[in-house]
Amino acid sequence: MRARSSTLTRGLTLAAGLTLALAACSSGGGGGGSGSKDTSAGLTSCSTQGKANTCNSGTTKAGGTFTYVLEKNIQQWNVQDTNGNTFENAEALEAVLPQVFVPQPDFSVSLNTDLVTSATQTSAGPQTLVYKINPKAAWNDGTPISADDFIYYWRTNNGKDCPPPPASDSTQTKGCLPQSTAGYDRIKSVTGSDGGKTVTVVMNKPYSDWKSLFGGGYPLYPAHVAEKLSGATAGDAAHMTGAQMTQGWQYFQKTPPTKYATSGPYKMQEWVDNDHATYVPDPTWYGTKKATLQRLIFKVITDATQEPTALRNNEVQGIYPQPEVDLVNQVKDIPGVTYSIGNGLTWEHFDLNLHNPALGKYTALRQAMFTAISIKDIVAKTVGQFDPSVKQLGNHNFVPGQQGYQDLVTATGQGSGDLAKAKKYLTDAKFTGVGTALKTPDGKAVGPFNCRYTTGNQIRQSECQILQSDLANLGIKITIKPIGAADLGTVLAGHQYDIIVFAWVAAPFPTSGAQQNWTTGGGGNYGGYSNKKVDALVAQSVGETDAAKAADLLNQADKLMVDDAYVLPLYQKPTFLAVQSRFVNMRNNSTNVGPAYNTGEWGLKK
After folding, report:
1. Burial level of 333, CB count in 10 A (0-12/13-18/19+)?
2. pLDDT for the residue 34
3. What does DSSP say about strands 2-4 and 499-505: parallel, antiparallel, or unpaired?
4. Side-chain half-sphere exposure of 362, counting CA atoms within 13 A
5. Residue whose C-alpha is closest to residue 225's, from 199, 201, 200, 254
6. How far apart are CA 405 and CA 392, in angstroms?
7. Which residues are CB-neighbours of 600 under 8 A, at least 6 positions away?
8. How far is CA 119 from CA 98, 130, 167, 214, 484, in A?
9. Count of C-beta atoms within a 10 Å radius of residue 543
10. Cβ atoms within 10 A of the Cβ of 305, count?
11. Closest-CA residue to 488 (of 86, 128, 53)
């Protein structure tokens, strides 16, 4: 899972049950649709089930430059790393690095046949997966893509062969720190045959979300590059040492893909830090769909309020901001622009840092805080102003419309703003100063706590302000402390917050996402949550190949998590894509890969 302007998670094979209606596409300049309402002339509806993957489709012609906005700078380039696992990093790499299964706008996953011609489970006992690599698949330096690339991926992500940095290593330079080991920690072996073009994966334990392996928003990196720079034997990732794998891991962290072999319809020609990436068609690309744009540019604009102006002035041709009412209204008035508002696998939440002594020790304090917060008030003053359909989210693993979704939060009163109930949690637990200056049962002051959000995001600033007001009613002082646009990963990994608000952007793989975010020591479990019963239930779900049973296990775990009051889900977050209507094949993909999942198809309308 990734946090957006905030980081992304490996995601969910349960996506087959998803029936969530996606938003409409509307032509700007004189009003238009919001949500699934078709209210303007010339509107192309994408809200009908089955049309999400073909919205804004068209035949392209050669030429043109398309500039797309990234909302924060990219500070490190290894998207598999817990600190590089950001939405913007993933988008920037999707044009140049391959993955097996790619999440689609309708939350299904599609096999990338440019990389593999097939990926199948050939046995259930033990679970065995066979990948047939496309005979033409190659890195753009001429090196064939082979089983060696899959072996390198597995060994750097399994949490064992390339061990994570020790706690004493504050620089995190002495090992691999994958954003999630989910699935890779269950693999017994990865072997190659047929000259390296067949990959056979044998599992030690069953893995329900096997289609998330070697993809799902997390691409392959070229093993031969890591082998060469580390002094390892070429083509022998199976015998790389931990130190050699660490060298490769760190290289891909620090190095933009202008400097090593890639494989995609484009190659990155230039990266200017905190400004832009420039891509041009890769003449070595072997895929069936050739890039038609003359240039593709990803422009860094960290102040979302500037995006409509840049779009109006033709400085950029596509934006994917986190929507705010003023921003949406500005875009609606720009002629020649198509826009869509949708709901997907992105959800807003408040997280507590359990490394804070008071927050970590007192469950009653956390329950009281979450109960005092009014999500209805938050929605009404933020996203509800442009999307009145937004409601409180009641689950940590599923969103409405997904198979498995149950509202497990509302009945507890969390997010209700029920001040009397919130105060009762505290008085029953022997807190004093309730409503004035709160103190723990042993007489220590509670707080002040900080509430952190990414700078330039007005909605999140408002969310922190509402939380500040709500918790003042309990006698808890809150200070609001913004985070630099590119610093969210650092703040999360370094536990530099008491309360933080951001959004997870999930892949359609919920069990692996749960392992990453909620289990003890998980790569996305930044706040230090630990519950052995939750760990056990999530582990069961990860190994359960029956989708309904896996969902039931996750919901059992979720009930415990709700009671523990670690993360408060706020709402399923609206997404907003606006592009100039002279371009086609850009569409709102509200998963962890975003609209850039198909950059090779983007182009000028013929």
Report:
1. middle
2. 30
3. antiparallel
4. 26
5. 254
6. 13
7. 95, 264, 265, 266, 287, 289, 290, 291
8. 14, 6, 38, 11, 41
9. 17
10. 15
11. 86
Q: Which stretches of the chain drop beneath a pLDDT of 70? A: 1-50, 169-173
- Decide: helix, strand or coil at residue 340: strand
- Smallest CA-to-CA distance from 463 within 414, 409, 503 is with 503
The pTM for the full model equals: 0.80
- Cα–Cα distance, 551 to 558 (Å, whole number): 10
Under a CB-based contact definition with an 8 Å cutoff, are residues 509 and 217 in contact? no
Q: What tens digit of pLDDT does each residue of 440-463 get?
A: 999 999 999 999 999 988 899 999
Q: In terms of residues, how long is the chain?
A: 606
Q: Which of 597, 509, 406 is nearest to 108 (CA)?
A: 509
pLDDT the model gives residue 170: 59
Residues 213, 211: Cα–Cα separation, whole Å: 5
Report how far residue 71's alpha carbon sits from residue 210's, in angstroms, rounded to the nearest whole number.
31
pLDDT of residue 386: 84
Contact of 247 with 229, CB cutoff 8 Å: yes
- Residues 206-220 as b or e (16 or more Cβ within 10 Å = b): bbbbbbbbbbbbbbb
Helix (H) or strand (E) holding 267: strand 266-272
What pLDDT was estimated at residue 31? 32
Token pair in block for residue 449: 């706590």
Do the beta carbons of residue 130 and residue 122 sit within 8 Å? yes
- What does the pLDDT read at residue 590? 87
Instruction: Tell me the C-alpha distance between 242 and 547, whole Å.
Output: 36
- What per-residue confidence (pLDDT) applies to 6? 38
Structure tokens at 452: 């952190």
The enclosing H or E element of 123 equals strand 116-124
Query: Mind listing the pLDDT tens digit for each residue in 274-295?
Result: 999 999 999 999 998 899 999 9
Question: How far from 536 is each of 252, 395, 469, 512, 559, CA to CA, in Å?
Answer: 34, 19, 38, 14, 14
Which amino acid does the sequence have at 376? K
3-state secondary structure of 541: helix
Burial (CB count within 10 angstroms: exposed 0-12, middle 13-18, buried 19+), residue 63: exposed
Rounded to whole angstroms, the Cα distance separating 396 from 164 reads: 27
